[in-house]
Amino acid sequence: MDSRVKSISQILKQRAYMQENLSTPNILQATQSYKQALLDTAQLNKSNEHSYRTQLQNLLNTLKDPPVRIIHEPQAEAGQGDIRPDFKVYRQVDSTTSLSYNALVGFIECKKWGKRLEFDVKGKQIEKYLEVCPNILLTDYNRFILLSFGNVIDDITLFPYGIDSNLFNNNATLDSTTALKFSTLLSTFFTTTPNITSKDELIKVLSTQSFYLGLKARESYHSTPRTSFHKFFEKTYETFGAITRYGLSIEEFCDLLGQSVVYGLLVAYLESELDSASPLEYVGVESIATLLPKEFHLLSEFIYFSIPSFHIPEPVSYALENIKKTIALIDKPALATMLNTQIESISIYLYEDFLKAYDDLRGSEKRKEGGVFYTPEPIINCICSSVHSLLKSHFNKPKGFLDSNVKVLDFATGTGSFLAKVFELILDEEKSRVWQQEAIREKFLKDIYGFELSFVPYIVAHIKLSSILKSRGFSSFDSENKLQIFLTNTLDLSTQADYQMTMPLLLLEEQDKLARRIKHTDEVLVIMGNPPYNNKSKNNLPEIQNLLSTYKQGLNETKINLDDDYIKFMRFAQWKLLERYNPAECAPLVLDSRQGIMGFITNNSYIWGRTHRKMRESLYNAFDRIYIINLHGDSEKDRKEDENVFDIRVGVCISLFIKYPEGHSGNSSLGNHCVDSTNFERTADLKSSSPSKFVENSTSTTANTRIVDSTNTDSQKVDSKIFYFSTSDNAIYKRADKYALLNDIAQKGLDSISWQNLECEAPYFWFIKRDLDSHEYEEFFALAEDKALGDSKAIFETYGSGNKAERDRICIHFNEADLHNLLHDFCTLDTEAIRTKYTLKEDSRDWSVDRAKADVLEHFTKAEKSPLIQQIAYRPFDTRYTFFSGKSKGFWGTPSAKISKHFLLGGGQNLGLCFTKDYTGYYEAPLIADSPIDIHYNGGQSYIAPLYRYEQTTGDDEKQTHKLKKLPNFTESFKAYCQTHKILKSKSPEQILHFIYANLFHPHYRAKYAQYLRIGFPRINFEVSKESFEALESIGRELVELHLLRKIPQDSSIYIDFRSEAKSSPNYTIQKLNTKNRFVDSMLILNDDLCIKGVDTAVYDYTIGGYKVIEKWLSYRNDYTCSKLELEHLESICKILKRTIALQKELEQIAL
Questions:
Q1: Fewer CB within 10 A of the terminal residue: the chain, N end or C end?
Q2: Is there a cis peptide before residue 763, judged by omega within 30 degrees of 0?
Q3: Both 264 and 327 in a single domain?
């Protein structure tokens, strides 16, 4: 008899026994005895959490099946740590059955009689137990809650009257209905083999087991420094890091190991035959690597050396054993039915959710940091189908991807979705089954490459692509016929393997050599994919940094945002297709052909970012044609209703870069790819918008844009370069509509939409439509000199960024008392004590506990308590306290001391205009300050220009060696301009500042020059009438006084109010609320007792620098108890914003 059939047969027998033993008469008799035993114990008046455990065990022993063993107060098993429930329940299995050990049935956890068990169901203790066993019975001896994978399956109370002797009597016996329910609960607990049948259960179990294994591996590594395990693990870690050159920490390496083992075993189990016992049951943990599918030899090697079979620490061994047991619980057919997929495809569908759940357990964002996001099918279809068509029409490849000499590389393969679509398109070209088999051998397994750095997606990609080939009848995988997917760091461009292997990871070394050959020797025609988006990239190898310098040359920017991984991947692709010189030596190689296509879905910041201009220039000069489909979806910059095609916050775009073969003119493409709007037909999903919306701008032109009209035969001969399509410009905001658009392009080609032809010009080379047609604006004075572009026509001489603390929570405080307490700790506690007390993690380049402490000791003790305790403008209308010595990499990481000194020396009398350089969205950034500012004071990177400079001079008298000289902070060119200006020559610096401030708040100014305000410092027009100047200056003066809180409007309609019963003992603590509950019927709700009335929607929503002022102020104070003065300050903010809105309406009446 098959072992699995025997096992099922035995379970059926056990259930039959349980049904007989748990019959109503038996259970009534047993519970009556249990009740009496409880009552006897309770009457001793010494009962506690443990008093009734023997009585419970007697009850369960009476009702259980004989093979079931209930162990009271079990010792914690090796590797379980604090996993020690009150009872462990095992089923004794005969040695001839499929199971070779005493199978764990479940845990029983007891709590004190009458305890509210709701808190324990989701508590840390049960969470720990679930790491080991999914079947848990939680009880207070009266109430019984059955849990399976953390879900409540049953909840029964035996004696609702409790244990009180007056109520707990013979008339309160268990009724037959409750007895039947209790019988069912125990039967389920004792006899049901828990199966995993839902996606959520499986995700939770897989992520938990991965996390637990990684945790135990890390703990074992650190706690066993001289063992064989430690040595093997460390050498494997070192070798893996040396080959991949990615710089994983031990913690990250353990994460990788845990995820790889669990996912590898999952795949092994899913691929095992359904009608046979799982091999998991027969293989010991020491041989766990042998369970993996044969095509995963690389993973087997990795696990074999990371967890040496001859010395596996007990905690790791237990974790592995538990993983085996857990995966064996998966009900494959049920899960496949639920997911509507084949059993072997289950792992493909779970990948992204698995990583997300793992991140939740780790309290990290590794998935986001790694840019790991499933690419939606419409995006893949659009890119792959477009490239397939371009190969046919522009590269003389009539069969597209299938044609000879067409080699394809997905440089960030992930789960292989792009390559799967390439496979599909190739197979569609070959209708004959025989020719398909040849295409598989000669094309799929030779010319289609994939690079991936992480094991789990590497595994999933193999499964996905193999299943495609198997579905077409190909299964002859061997050393000569295998998928060309390599575990490698795409951005490692070193030409030689310059590393020493301390552990013989020979298969990984072979993969590295093959990938290196593809990077440096093999020619590919197409590179595509979805590169990771991570602006905190770890890929800082010298070769890719050398390549990236092309995008940075001549920028002259103080902050260059070009280190995002997606930019590095794009630079790699450009190098691979068109340059391929040694990136370490910058020595060009001679290529047989400089041609090819790049097709990506990426962050869209490179098409509009100011600091990306050299990148755009390089791409513009390198390629013959560029297609940009801007899908928008940025949660901060785009319209609220503009949905992202991914579940991410940054906007995205699809880009196609084409370098034609030598001799190709490129003219033929225009007619094919720029189509008359009347030919566009929407799909059923797009009925919500009319087709004309796609070309509603077709009659307009802008400074860098013209519409390509295919009805004009002359336009087809234009040597067009960049073609741009914006979903936002065509009123496509819903994700479903964007998908429909992309599917339409995939089916009908690039000629199914009307493109805008962008005319790129220096210095910006925009890859986006810009309305830059106001030549007069460029003649205005800029607030400050744009050194990057050599623009010297500026108003303010001295300006700079705000101060960057690096540790806001440490450096910036609501009040002086809290700051003094912290400074006292920094003076008296040692470094580790400070780190522990203030939960400070790793130091950074610009801030460390040691340096901060040294700065405080050096300056705070000398100054006692005064001069260096300063106010800092942290956020709009949110001034706080800090300790400021001006020392770089001290208490403040990156202070702007040269700018801040003009406010400190000015004694609070100086003014500073705060602004931004390249603001996105509607311009609302300017603000005034009279103290040093934080770097994010008014959103983004904040710049400040003081109105006056304070310079120290040496006097003639030796006793007056230091004098302060107060000078207007204007450039020489602007001072000369003022001297001859009919209005400005008689105006003070303050009046000029007021005029500037009014301009910056003028709604017409913000709208008229919106495009310019996104790409540089604001510019001001002083050529106005005297009447306009005086009107603007007057309003500007009032705005300055308001925003510095020097003038509070007398507005009785806005006031703090209490509930009547709260007035005698008011609650001043700000309650954490969402927007819906924070702002209700013109009331700003602070807590249940307190609100501010008379606040209209415009005031609550008023925004400065991307911050909703009131919402931001409150968000920093959730669960914080305000003083009366702080609450009155918030009331004043509401009044000030209301008056600001009124003044902006007055400004609309003044012509610019």
A1: N
A2: yes
A3: yes
